[in-house]
Every structure is written in structure tokens, then in C-alpha cells.
Amino acid sequence: MDAAEFRRRGREMVDYVADYLENIEQRPVYPDLEPGYLRSLIPSEAPLEPESYEDVMKDVERVIMPGITHWHSPYFFAYFPAASSYPAMLADMLCGAIGCIGFSWAASPACTELETVMLDWLGKMLQLPECFIAGTDGHGGGVIQGTASEATLISLLAARCKAIRRVQATNPEISEAEVLSKLVAYTSEQAHSSVERAALIGGVMMRKVPTDKTYAVGGHMLKQMVEEDKAAGFIPFYVTKHSGIECVCLFQFCATLGTTPSCAFDHTTELGPICNDENMWMHIDAAYAGSAFICPEFRPLLNGIEFADSFNFNPHKWLLVNFDCSAMWVKKRTDIIGAFKMEPLYLKHENQESEFESLVRADKRFEICAEVIMGLVCFRLKGSNELNQNLLKKITKSQEIHLVPCQLSGRFVLRFAICARTTESRHIQQAWRHITQLTFELLQEPSH
Amino acid sequence: MDAAEFRRRGREMVDYVADYLENIEQRPVYPDLEPGYLRSLIPSEAPLEPESYEDVMKDVERVIMPGITHWHSPYFFAYFPAASSYPAMLADMLCGAIGCIGFSWAASPACTELETVMLDWLGKMLQLPECFIAGTDGHGGGVIQGTASEATLISLLAARCKAIRRVQATNPEISEAEVLSKLVAYTSEQAHSSVERAALIGGVMMRKVPTDKTYAVGGHMLKQMVEEDKAAGFIPFYVTKHSGIECVCLFQFCATLGTTPSCAFDHTTELGPICNDENMWMHIDAAYAGSAFICPEFRPLLNGIEFADSFNFNPHKWLLVNFDCSAMWVKKRTDIIGAFKMEPLYLKHENQESEFESLVRADKRFEICAEVIMGLVCFRLKGSNELNQNLLKKITKSQEIHLVPCQLSGRFVLRFAICARTTESRHIQQAWRHITQLTFELLQEPSH
């Protein structure tokens, strides 16, 4: 499919999408099918010959649509809302075209920066305490996760790391495994299953705090359980809280504001001081209810947020952002970064083709550093690591091509990876001319 | 934005995307910016008044594009390729419109079934051993993860769970924490940082196996380390393998076929028998190289796959599927399912608005089961759980509206959640008429 056909098919797809959403009310909201329906409708192996675009689109109606639960039908009252809007779909089209993977600032600066600044905007709309806002010199800030389950897991792992380091700081003779076996996290018996699963993944014990008759957790019950566990030699560290919020504790508590079963709100203003006194991480999960806190009449439900270490809610539920987008804030960014930090060289700023390999081998100033099997060539200038670092600096500064390095047997090596679908022989030839020109300049400099 | 405007803006966006990709070669591949560039270009708080669509699109060129690293430029030779194609973008538009969240079969049957059948197609293209194919009665099968890092983490957690259960089956007096502290996973010193991070998250020790002069791991080195660790009282359980593959071991080994730094291939046919003999889970990560194994000339690099418990590669690298799509296969689905299984009632097949609440309260046959604060009403027929289960069955069978249940204080309760952006008062009124009609029919039945 070339650009011209994409322009045509893209217009048709825009109309298909608009037609689908304008007429969704006419489709049965829930499919009437037995498990396994789809396998019999299509071949058991991928076809060897291509099918026409028209036939593929016919299969969408014949094979896919009969098996869809229509989440955007006005007769869908199940689970929780998944937001969707036309502007969000346009934005997704643009993101798909840019198609960058923002795993570091350098991998696409706009990704990291826009995320940070937009989470500040959103945090201010929720009137989060100043300590959760990144600004230009804050210690806190926001980050986008895929789902609330991921936000809960990340907060639990950060709390676990912090608790282990704290215990080992005063008792260096205790092993990490030993500390781990003593940690207890708490959450409401009404919390989402993902909170319990986070504890399972993190390998820590999780206790469920009984709720009152409104299905919310109050301070009294948590206090009592924590006292019992401490007396038995355990280390509370994490709490999750519900109120449309779920909260975790290692010596953590995960509270929920708006539980999944009944949208109950845990009593954060009672729970928060207990967590702070006991040095327990408090995570507040308001996956569903969070969007409502932008409204002054609902904002009081978020009172107590000042005691929390982390907080999240899902714009993909009520804020017209298509799945997936869970916004998460922490008071101290270093708590999260410190728990996961690893810096392999290819991510500090990282690169085959026999064609490029032969160009490198033909130039005696260079050497190939690893066997070339697929689309990646590892090469370097014969000489010091510093010389190769300087060459990469020149390449980056010139902005014509983009490479990143790696480390092999203690040596600084350049990685040349064939990446774009549109890279042709001429681009590779030109890249090599560019690299050799910069090498010539570099070797002329008096220091070399 | 209504459907008519979406049709117009959608066409414009299709053209913007096609123009961007046709002319990407003219843009500098790597941005020339200092960290923090974006914050000064936009207001510090969200605007209170809307901006025109034209102004938003101008901001894309003014604010976003200068900060983009253009991954699809033919001059991009960094990291690894991120696939992108016009057909994949069209498919993403359609998925965005359907916007269903496929966390269970019932949440949208087509999602689960299409995924299973397509992973069978792909597995057959790779000539995976039959035990990795789901078919209609296989024990293995494929599942889509977001990234190879997730696939590695999931295989490590499944291996950990299996190892703990095996040790406890013969030694029930040993606590889970104690087993955990004795587990050792192995991977290549050249494996991706995400393998080490998976061990960090899972709270298990990971040892790095030295590579040979081609940067690959051979059987001899692994065997020696495992023997040493067993002699010291540890329990090897997981191995990851590289060859464009990464492999893990608890008593796991993670092998890599095509390492990130240099695309080295671990010696799977040597490592596999060691893992099988030692009862270690072997995970093979071929994130980058996997797509090439479809070609007969590269397929020999995958030999040894028959010894693996799990395998993954990223179609979003070379198969023209936009990010994110990492395909993962396991020999025994129960190993993965068993490690994470939780079945809260709202996911077994899971609902507010004062409007709907008042309708329920006005009917004395019904009761409200939890305080209604936001868009969720929990209600039930006064009477047995069985009666309410039967009512929900009738509602599901009728296909007019879609609800799921929850459990509150041991009682089976129906959840009515306002979900769709387009749900109006008339839809709610009609849903209630429908529920009361089915209730009337139910209460007429002789059994009640």
C-alpha cells in the first residue's frame, strides 16, 4: 500500500468509523455466540497469496463484528466506562504515524516533555498538593501508565524497595530475602483484584482490611491490624486506599476512592495519618472516580491526598481519552526511579546489513566488532574508546543520521541498525560517506 | 466534535499523515534541543476556553515536531526498528473506534479468539513445534504482550510460581519466602536490561552467564554455574536465552537469539537439554530476530526451540505492525494462567446515576445495595442470590442491554454503570423498562 492508496483507504476508514459510531445503537450490545465461533470462519493457516482490501473489509463485518461486545453502545452498562471521542481518535492517528518509542528523553524529547507538562496541567485541575507537581524544580510529578493495575504494581514495588533499604540501613546484617518475608501490605477487602495481584507479583504478603457498612475502610480497623502485625514481628509497609480510590501499604496501604463493586470511598483523612506515623507508603487509586475531582462539588472526596505517597486515576474512563491512559503522580520521583534504575549503554544514547558491513571492512581505519547476522553492524574506529566517543558526538551534532553506541568486551562500539521500512541503498551509502567525512575531520584535529 | 466534523478532520489527518511520511526525509532525524524546551512554548496551566482545531494543529508543528526523533526517517539507524505501515495504521483506526477492552472472553469474544487464532497462524509460519499451537485442544498457545520486557517478566513469574509449588509439594514445611530466597535465575551477560529488571521485580537472584568470543552463551558455562549454585544450596529455576533470543532460568534460564548490543545468538541446542535435565524453565527471547525465522534460510537459528517452555518475538520490529505487539508462546497455558489467576465476581460476567437509582427505589421488589455517589448503581431483587442470578441470565440472554454482577456482603448484586458517552435519559428509561419486564416474566415462572 503506497501513500496514494492510504489517502483513499484512510478516507474510507474515517467514514466506516463515523458510520459505525452513528449507528451503533442498532447493533446487539452483547454477542450471541459460543466460545470458539471464530476459528471455523477463517482458514487454519495464513494464506500464501494476498487478499484484496475489499475482501479484508468484508471479513471485518463477517468475522469480527459478530463477536464484539459494543462498549460504546448507549445500552452498555457493564464494568466501567471506556472513554472514546473523535478528537482522541484523530490524535491516535497522528501518534501512529510518528510511531516513536519514548523510552528515554533522547528517543523522542517531545514525548517525555509533553507527558510531564500535561500531567502538571491535569494535576493542577485536580488541585493536587504542590508536592505532586513537577514544574521546573519539583521533586514530584506525573507519569502515564497503561492501566490502574500497572500504577498499583509500580507503587507497590517502589514501596517494597524503599522499605527494604530502610530496614537494611539500620540492620545491614539482614538479607533482602529476610526483609521481604516480613513485609505486609494492606488494602480494602473491596479493592480491585489487581491490588492483590500486585502483591502476588511483588512476592509480599497482603492483608485485606474489613470494610464498614458502606463498604469503605476506616482508620480504626487498619490501626488494629497494623498493631497486631507489628506485635507478631512483621513490617507493615504499604497501604492502598479506595474512594473511587485504592490505596497500598508495606508497611504500605493501598486505599481506593470509588471501589469497583460499589464505588465506595475509603476514609483517607483517617487512614493517611496512620500511614505517615507508621512509615507506610500510602497509594490512592481513584481509577474510576478521579476525573470527577476536577468538579468543585466532588473535590472534597479527595481530601487526605496530602498524606499519600502516590495517586492515580484513569482519564480513559471519563475524560474522553481513548484506552489506554492511567495518570499517576508521586511525591518523590526518586522513589520510583530508584526502584527500577538500570542504564545499559545502548540507552545512554545506541545500531546491519552486509552492504554496510562491506563498506566498513573496506576502510582500514575501522573494525567490525561482532559477527553480522541480520540487520545490525557493530563497528568502531581502531583506537581508543575516547576517539570513538568523539566520533559519535560529531555524528549526533551533525543531525544527519542517528546512531547509538553499545559496550562489547569493555570497548565503546557504534551500532548501525537498519530501522526504517523506507531505508534504501542510497541512504546507507550516504550515511557511510557522512561517517567517513566526519572521521576525516576528527583525525585532522590536533588532539588525535 | 460531531460525526460530520470528524469525517472532515479525519480526511485532513489522513493527508497530514501521508504528507508527513512522504516528506520525512527532509526533516532532521534527531532534534537539536536542550531538555526542558517544551515547557516555555505553552501555558503553565490548561486553558479555560477552547482553542480552534486549526490552532491545535499549528501547535503540532510549532511545539511537538521540533522535539521528535523521527524513527521512520530512512536516516534513523539507532536502537532497533519500530515497524510502521499504512495497513497497520488503518487497522489501528478501526480498533480505536471499536474501543473495547478485552480482559476476558465476555468483554469482547472477537478479541480473545482472533488473538488465539492469529498467534496459531504466526506460530505455524515460524514452524514452532506443535506443542506451542493452541488449535482446538492444545495445551499451549500464543498471547500478545506489549513488549518483550513484559513477556520476559511474565515467563519469569510463571517459572517462579512453578518452582515454589514444586519445592513445597515435596517439602510443605518450607515457607514461600524461604523458597524465594533460594531461587536463582540465569541469563547472558549480554541480555537486555529488561531481563535483569524482571528478576528485580520478581524478587529473585539473577546470575549472568559469561559469553564466548562471539558474545553468545554456550552450554559449558551455564552447566558450571548451575553446579556451583546447587552445591551452595540454591535452586536454579529459570534461564533466558539470546539469539536475537533472550532466555531465563529459576532454576530458570533466559536465552537470547539476537542480543541488543550485537545481535549474538545463544547456543540453544546446548542450553536446552541442561535446562530440561535440571527442571529449569527456559525462556527464549528473539525480540528482534524472530521475524526472520519465517524465512527458511534463517529458521535453523531457532533450532532448540523444542526445549523451551516459552518464546517471544516482536512483530512490531520487522513485520509492519505498529508498536506495540510482542507475540509470546508457551508450551503449557496453565503455567501462565495458574500464576496469576484471580476471579473477582465483576469479571465473571460486572453498574449509576441518581436517575436510575430513583427508578429502582420506586419499585418495592428491588433494593439499592450500596450508597450511590457517582455513575454506578448496585441493586438487586429482594430475595435469594439464585433469583438474582436468574434475572441476570435473562438480561444477558435477551441481548438488549449489558450488565455484570458483583458480590457485596455475600450477596449477589447487579451493577448498573453509565458507560457510553452517548447514553441519554431515554436509554436508561428503556433499560429499566426492559429489566422490569424480565423481572415480571421471571416472577411468573412456577419455580418462584
UniProtKB/TrEMBL annotation, chains A, B:
GO molecular function list: aromatic-L-amino-acid decarboxylase activity; pyridoxal phosphate binding
Modification N6-(pyridoxal phosphate)lysine occurs at: K317
Enzyme class: lyase
UniProt-listed GO biological process terms: amino acid metabolic process; carboxylic acid metabolic process; catecholamine biosynthetic process; serotonin biosynthetic process
InterPro entries membership: Aromatic_deC, PyrdxlP-dep_de-COase, PyrdxlP-dep_Trfase, PyrdxlP-dep_Trfase_major, Pyridoxal-P_BS
CDD domains: DOPA_deC_like
PANTHER family registered for this protein in UniProt: AROMATIC-L-AMINO-ACID DECARBOXYLASE, GROUP II PYRIDOXAL-5-PHOSPHATE DECARBOXYLASE
Family, as annotated: Belongs to the group II decarboxylase family.
Protein's UniProt name: Aromatic-L-amino-acid decarboxylase
Source organism per UniProt: Anabas testudineus
